[in-house]
Amino acid sequence: MQGEAAHVSNGQAHPAPSSALEIADELSRAFAATAVERDRRGGTPNEERDRLRRSGLLSLSVPADLGGWGAPWPVVLEAVRRIARADSAIAHVFGFHHLMLATLRLFGSAGQASRLQADTVAKRWFWGNALNPLDTRARLVRRGDALVVRGAKSFCSGASDSDMLIVSAIDDATSRLVVAAVPTGRPGIRVLGDWDNMGQRQTDSGTVELDDVEVRADELLTTPGPLGSTFASLRPCLAQLVLVNVYLGIAEGALEEARRYTRARRRPWIAARGTPATEDPYVLLRYGDMWLGLEAARLLADRAGAAFLAAWEEGDRLSPEQRGACAIAIAAAKVATSRAGLEITNGMFEVMGASATTADAGMDRFWRNLRTHTLHDPVDYKSRELGAYALNGAIPEPSFYS
C-alpha cells in the first residue's frame, strides 16, 4: 500500500485520529478485493496481517507518550468496524490485538504495561490470544525454581503469525487463574492450524499447545491480576465491545453489498408487472426494515463506546455502579448488533434474488461469519442481563463474559 510506512511510529507525532480511520478505510478496500477468495482458502492471512503491521494501526491504542497514536477507544473500535465491513476475520484479530494491549494495562503493573506497549510500537508486534477461561487444560506448575505452563488452549484467535501471546492457565498451587504475556516463539509453544469452522475462517481460532513453556515472574500479570479490581473487570467489557463492532461492520458490509447488487443486477420479479427492482414495494420494504435495525444498532454501539471510554478514564476510581452502567450499555449493543446483523445477512438474499447465491459471489460469507461468532457467546444471556436490569435494577456481576 502506498504511504504505509509514513504512518509507522518513528519518534514523531502520529497524524490525527481521523487519519487512522482513513488508513482503516484504505486497508478495508484492499482486503475486500481478496476477501471471497481468502474466505474459501482459510488459513493465516499473512500478507494482510503484514499490511496492518506496516500501516501503524497496531499502535493505535498505545498512549502517545509510549510512541503510539494515543487514540481514544471509540476511534479504535471504529477502525475495527470499518475493516469488518470488508473482512470480519481480520477485523476480529485486529480488535483482539488491542484487547491484549488493554489487558496489559488492566491486569498488569504500570511498568509492565508501559514496557510492553512501547515494545509493541518499536517492534511492530502483533498480539494473539490464548486466554480462554472456560478451557482449563493449561496449568501453571513449578519445576524446580522455574514456572512452566503445560496443557493446551482452544479458540486462540490470532495466535498464528503473532509475535506475543496473552496466555491464561490454572495455577496448580492455588487453583487460581493466572495470566501472562509471553513471546509466541518461545520454546514449547505450538500453534496448530486446526481451525476449520464454517465462518471467521482466517482468524486462526484453533488450538495452542503448551509443552512446559517457561514463564518468567515478570511476565505474569498479577497487579491486580485477572478481574482483580473494578477497573480490571473492564476487560470483558472491552472484549464484548470489540465483538459489537465486528458484528456491526459485518452488517454494514452486507447491506452495502446487497444495495450494490440490487441496483446493478437484480431483475424485477414477474409479479411486479414491469416495476424496476429498485422501485418494487416489497424490496423497498425490506431495505427499510434492514436499515432501521442497523441504524438502531449503530446508535447503541456508539453509545456503548462512549460509556466504555468514560469508564476507562476513571481508572482505579471506577465504581461498581459505573462499571455496571457501562456493562448494560454494551449488553444492549451486543443484543442489537447480533439481531440486526443476523436479520441483514439472511434477509439480504430476499432483495438480491437467487442469482446472488452463486459460489463465485461469496455472499454467504457475511452470514457464516456472523453466525459462527454469535454462537460463542449466547446473546440470550445478554438479554437476561438486560431484563434483570430493566425489572430489578440489577447490574451484571463481572465475569469474563459480562
Task: Supply the helix-strand structural class.
Answer: alpha/beta
Mean pLDDT: 94
Unreliable spans are: 1-12
Reading the helices and strands in chain order gives: HHHHHHEEEEEEEHHHHH
Radius of gyration: 22 Å
Task: Give helix % range.
Answer: 40-55%
Question: Separation of termini?
Answer: 38 Å
Molecular structure report:
With 402 residues, the chain is α/β, with parallel strands linked by helices. It is 51% helix and 11% strand. It has helices spanning 17-32, 35-41, 46-55, 73-86, 88-107, 110-123, 234-265, 281-314, 320-352, 364-374, 379-392; strands at residues 127-130, 139-143, 146-153, 164-171, 177-183, 189-191, 208-215. Strands 1, 2, 3, 4, 5, 6 and 7 form a seven-stranded mixed sheet that branches. A hairpin with a 2-residue loop joins strand 2 and strand 3. Helix 9 (320-352) runs antiparallel to helix 10 and helix 9 packs across helix 11. The chain is globular, with a radius of gyration of 22 Å. Mean pLDDT is 94; it is low at 1-12.
Q: Could you outline the blueprint of secondary structure elements for this entry?
A:
Elements: H1 17-32, H2 35-41, H3 46-55, H4 73-86, H5 88-107, H6 110-123, E1 127-130, E2 139-143, E3 146-153, E4 164-171, E5 177-183, E6 189-191, E7 208-215, H7 234-265, H8 281-314, H9 320-352, H10 364-374, H11 379-392
Parallel strand pairs: 1-4, 2-4
Antiparallel strand pairs: 2-3, 3-7, 4-5, 6-7
Helix pairs in contact: 1-4, 4-5, 4-7, 5-6, 5-7, 7-8, 7-9, 7-10, 8-9, 9-10, 9-11
